[in-house]
Specification:
This protein is an alpha+beta fold. Helices cover about 50% and strands about 15% of the residues. It has 16 helices and 13 strands. The strands form five sheets. It has a four-stranded mixed beta sheet, sandwiched between helices. Strand 1 and strand 2 form a beta hairpin. Helix 9 crosses helix 10. The protein starts with a helix and ends in a 9-residue tail after the last strand. About 5% of the residues have low confidence.
Length: about 450
């Protein structure tokens, strides 16, 4: 508790020093980031201090107490309802506080002996302000789902790894990390979840009263991957063409290009996806060949030992949930699917300056390392492989060590805002680091990108 109070005190001092009574609008970008960081530390400290209270409220409000439940005595059906009414937090946020409070509270044996917390690594990270309650709750829920057959030592090691990897991740990135971690702990459960998703698949196409066609569907990764890859590829091409047009408009001689009309295109991304689906179906009606072009591929990857034993899980580019080894084998028989079998360090692809553009093999190796956009995590089909050191300006080599996969938005942001990129190591095991400009981070602390951000290994 003293550690938490200390963090709160430090955060408040930082806030007073940065703001000093001034309006927030007049703060410099650096001051605004510092205040945001201070508020983040303050919120983590307050939530961590409150989590044990929420856990104890839940303990004294458990259902078997009946009318003697603490929550019911105060007019609330559950502990989460009581906490929500008291703090103003939403019921889901209150449930997260309860989840973390119960998981990090010391236990007691039947003989009255004090036992360690169920999730000691989460408890330690919360106490030191490294982990938020929201992230702690997600980690706890995933670990609680792991069946008893999994070795407790492996679960404890995974907890420690997740606690170390979670800080700095967005909620979507943490979700992807937890899905992969669960598949690692319980590979036998992957096929069961996959079967449940496959059995729950559906597609509904109907016309509503206004005359619009409504499409609602749910697909397992195996059947959804080619759908997503095809639509992502078409929309990404639309966005690239639009971006090229914008750059031409900004030049001294934009030229007379019909593509310039795209500047007047009012469609948002959701509308582009709707139109892409319509184009695919329109093409399919008049074509007896596969409706997807050679640039649209589905890449499925699996470790060699998992493929040989059939006991592990693989992944599909652009799809978060892992798939079983059996599904990988089935998909690999499809001509539109590229199977990637992983063993040790991949062979380094080095074409020197013999080629201006990256080869398909180099692009696949770069995407294997970066997992899509190395910066924001968009799927591979929405990225382009770029030279780190520009081919024309810096005489940069067309090598894997000089390649990075970026979406359009991140590519421009990195160049326009002055970010640096450093690749540490060789091959697909290399780590990509994004170094922010001084105006954004005076310390220029490197930020890990690419697939390495999901690697739990030390």
């Amino acid at each position: 508790m003293d550690d938490l109070l200390g963090l709160v005190a430090v955060a408040l001092v930082a806030l007073r020093a940065r703001v000093s009574g001034r309006a927030v609008a007049v703060l410099s970008p650096g001051e605004l980031i510092a205040v945001n960081d201070a508020f983040g530390a303050l919120r983590r400290a307050v939530d961590a201090a409150y989590a044990p209270v929420a856990g104890e409220i839940a303990r004294q409000s458990r259902p078997e107490l009946g009318k003697d439940s603490l929550a019911k005595r105060h007019g609330h059906r559950t502990a989460a309802k009581l906490i929500s009414a008291t703090t103003g937090a939403s019921v889901p946020d209150a449930i997260k506080l309860v989840t973390v409070g119960e998981a990090t509270a010391p236990g007691m044996s039947l003989t009255g002996e004090m036992l360690p917390a169920r999730r000691p690594h989460v408890a330690d990270a919360l106490a030191t302000g490294r982990l938020s309650v929201a992230a702690g709750a997600e980690i706890t829920r995933m670990l609680d789902r792991v069946p008893p057959r999994v070795d407790p030592a492996a679960v404890a090691a995974m907890e420690q790894g997740l606690v170390g990897a979670a800080p700095g991740l967005t909620s979507d990135e943490l979700r992807a990390l937890l899905i992969r971690a669960e598949a690692t702990l319980d590979p036998d459960g992957v096929e069961q979840k996959e079967r449940e998703l496959r059995d729950a698949r559906y597609l509904i196409v109907r016309e509503d009263r206004a005359g619009a066609i409504l499409v609602d569907g749910r697909f397992a990764p195996e059947t959804g991957a080619p759908i997503k890859a095809a639509l992502d590829d078409i929309v990404s091409g639309m966005l690239r063409r639009r971006d090229d047009t914008h750059r031409r408009q900004g030049s001294d001689d934009p030229g007379d290009d019909p593509a310039d009309e795209a500047l007047a295109d009012p469609r948002n991304v959701k509308q582009l996806y709707a139109d892409a689906l319509a184009e695919l179906c329109r093409h399919a009606l008049a074509c007896d060949q596969a409706p997807t072009g050679p640039s649209t591929t589905v890449i499925v990857r699996i470790n060699l030992d998992h493929l040989e034993t059939g006991a592990g899980a693989g992944t599909i580019d652009g799809i978060t949930r892992p798939v079983s080894a059996g599904t990988v084998r089935r998909m690999a028989a499809d001509a539109q699917v590229i199977p990637v079998v992983l063993g040790g360090d991949s062979e380094i692809l080095d074409w020197g300056r013999a080629k201006r553009l990256f080869t398909p093999a180099q692009k696949l190796a770069t995407l294997e390392r970066d997992g899509g956009c190395a910066c924001c995590g968009l799927p591979p089909s929405m990225t382009v492989v770029h030279h780190l050191r520009w081919w024309a300006r810096d005489r940069g080599r067309t090598d894997l060590a000089n390649a990075i996969a970026l979406c359009i938005a991140c590519h421009h942001r990195i160049h326009d805002d002055g970010w640096d990129i450093h690749i540490d190591g060789n091959g697909t095991r290399a780590k990509v680091w994004f170094i922010p400009p001084p105006w954004l981070d005076p310390d220029r602390s490197p930020r890990l990108g690419g697939n390495a951000r999901y690697n739990l290994a030390a």
